[in-house]
Amino acid sequence: MVEQSSAGTALAVRDLTKVFDARGTRVTALDAVSLTVPRGEIHGIVGRSGAGKSTLIRCLTGLESPTSGEVVVAGEDITALRGAELRAARRRFGVVYQHANLLDSRTAADNIALPLEVAGWDKADRDARVTELLDLVGLTDRAGNHPGQLSGGQQQRVGIARALAARPEILLCDEPTSALDAATTGSILALLRELRDRLGITVVIITHEPSVVREICDAVTLLGDGAVVEQGRLSEVIADPTTRLHRELIPLVEPATDGLVRLQVALGHPDSTVGSIDGIIALLRHEGIEADVAAATVETIAGRRVGRLLVELADATTTDRARDLLEQARLHPEVAA
Fold it and tell me: Please, are residues 225 and 31 in contact by the beta-carbon 8 Å criterion?
């Protein structure tokens, strides 16, 4: 079942700025944020607390009017709309929240049906759509259960089905897995990917969890202090050790060591002449530099084998020579703090 074409642009944010007046002080929550999300893409927007994610969500869905800039969905700037036109434009977004926020008095099926009731669908069409959605999220046998009878992951599946009920063009997920355990998080992310593949829907995930971006996103935007810090295709940013996103998305556990110099290098950069951990250590030892691996993070992200390596040098006097060798190999070494 394919509900929309994958061609073209689903969402374009252009120079979006939001300034609040807080007791006479102007606070810039969003500072000329721009990003483009093609149809059928899973786009991650990542940032720490205070980065501007919550304000961005409200501006995207028309709940907050920006100070300036545009939010263009299907070629229409929704920031210029008011009243009934704005309400209609909001239906282009289906929103999944951190907590499913289901109505306890309603069954799973009735929770999914709620937005269809509000939109004025007749009962026969509502029932058919709810049956279709329950099957889509794997909860056909839970249709009559109330939220208290469902696990956290099942409740989130109901929330996703409810967000999809009116056939939105964009599924906007606000921290959709931060309240879930690791196993349930994996199943929800797998479901979102499956929905994108089956329906062709565009998915935008707002998160502070790098693991979510690594697992599911095609592209990523990093927000910091209300502005875009970096953005790009996931396969590109994780392969470039000079980016903050590389560091955010590939964490390295650094062991406690005393009296040893540590160099951090990147694995998987397309220009590197040495591509393995053993090869890096062999390169140093071949030049008489005693080195060993202190820690490493290596994984496949967006189809590319990437990682970071922490090398310990037994003799501090070899640091400059080791760094030169690693730089020549395009491994982007730097002394670890």
Answer: yes
